[in-house]
């Protein structure tokens, strides 16, 4: 049996990481595949996700705040480094589950996941070669062209940071009107269309900066594809699965022998 495919879900606060992890876990289970969920957020309080491995067993934000006399922000930074010290406990717990997929719910603040040296060690230890970054685009920000570009650049930085394949997911599509959804997805398919939309929102004071951004968009165009998803109605989860299998299995479904036995 191959090592499990590990997907790290990240994005800006409020993008819907936990909800999407829960929905994709349910979709994989209904399709007959085993998936383990890892919570790496020491301050997570959501009740919609029941992780199989929970970093809060070793590192809890309230405990870090009390022990080190830190406020919430300082405690989040300290906790990010403390998690790295427990990563092999997490890895050991995962090895006992023997799943086809590992879904990792990362801390709510993307900078704590992406831009701490300890996070690179965590990703390397948990995922290895069969890893994927799922970067979530919050429609509240992505529905404006300037916001879309900001998220696109942040996604590119995360991919550069971890040097892992990255898929961009537009979340909460059930909250967007059909016309707005088509427009946002269209920006992900066509850099020129996105560039026109940015200009239509108002001229950038610094023309040189504007030109540089558009040149960067052309450079990273292959990364711009955006998969629309919704944790509420489960739309887009099968395309996400197909994308993962294209990367790790050449597009073929997981072998039946690797899926859990049918108990029906």
Describe this structure in words.
By secondary structure, the protein is an alpha/beta fold. The protein has a single domain (5-139, 159-178, 223-256), classed as Rossmann fold (3-Layer(aba) Sandwich), CATH 3.40.50.300. It is 49% helix and 13% strand. The chain is built from 12 helices and 7 strands. It has helices at 17-30, 61-68, 72-85, 87-95, 110-114, 117-126, 139-142, 145-162, 178-189, 191-200, 207-219, 237-249; strands spanning 5-11, 35-39, 53-54, 101-105, 131-137, 166-170, 226-228. The protein has a 7-stranded parallel sheet with strand order 3-2-4-1-5-6-7, with helices on both faces. The longest helix has 18 residues, at 145-162.
How many domains make up the coordinates?
Answer: 1
What general outline do the C-alpha atoms trace?
globular
Question: What's the average pLDDT?
Answer: 85
Superfamily (CATH H level) name: P-loop containing nucleotide triphosphate hydrolases
Distance between the ends: 23 Å
Briefly note the structural class of the backbone.
Answer: alpha/beta
Largest sheet: 7 strands, parallel
Low-confidence stretches: 256-264
Rg from Cα: 19 Å
Here the CATH topology equals Rossmann fold
Biggest sheet, spatial arrangement of strands: 3-2-4-1-5-6-7
Count up the helices: 12
How much strand?
5-15%
Instruction: Give the tally of β-strands.
Output: 7
Tell me the name of the CATH class: Alpha Beta
Instruction: Write the element-wise H/E pattern from the N-terminal end onward.
Output: EHEEHHHEHHEHHEHHHEH
CATH architecture: 3-Layer(aba) Sandwich
Q: What helical percentage do the residues reach?
A: 40-55%
């Amino acid at each position: 049996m191959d090592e499990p495919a590990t997907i790290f879900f990240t994005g800006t606060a409020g993008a819907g990481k936990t909800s999407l992890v829960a929905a994709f876990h349910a979709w994989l289970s209904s399709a007959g595949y085993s998936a383990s969920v890892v919570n790496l957020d020491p301050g997570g309080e959501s009740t919609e996700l029941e992780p199989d491995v929970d970093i809060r067993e070793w590192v809890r934000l309230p405990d870090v705040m009390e022990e080190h006399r830190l406020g919430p922000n300082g405690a989040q930074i300290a906790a990010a480094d403390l998690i790295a010290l427990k990563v092999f406990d997490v890895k050991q717990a995962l090895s006992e589950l023997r799943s086809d997929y590992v879904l990792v719910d990362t801390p709510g603040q993307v900078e704590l996941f992406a831009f701490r040296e300890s996070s690179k060690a965590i990703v390397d230890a948990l995922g290895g070669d069969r890893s994927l970054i799922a970067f979530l685009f919050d429609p509240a920000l992505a529905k404006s062209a300037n916001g879309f570009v900001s998220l696109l650049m942040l996604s590119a930085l995360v991919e550069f940071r971890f040097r892992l394949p990255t898929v961009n997911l537009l979340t909460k599509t059930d909250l967007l009107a059909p016309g707005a959804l088509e427009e946002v997805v269209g920006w992900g398919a066509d850099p020129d269309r996105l560039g026109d939309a940015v200009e239509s929102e108002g001229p950038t004071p610094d023309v040189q900066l504007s030109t540089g951004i558009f040149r960067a968009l052309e450079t990273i165009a292959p990364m711009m594809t955006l998969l629309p998803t919704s944790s509420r109605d489960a739309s887009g989860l099968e395309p996400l699965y197909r994308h993962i299998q294209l990367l790790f299995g050449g597009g073929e479904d997981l072998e039946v022998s690797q899926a859990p036995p049918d108990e029906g």
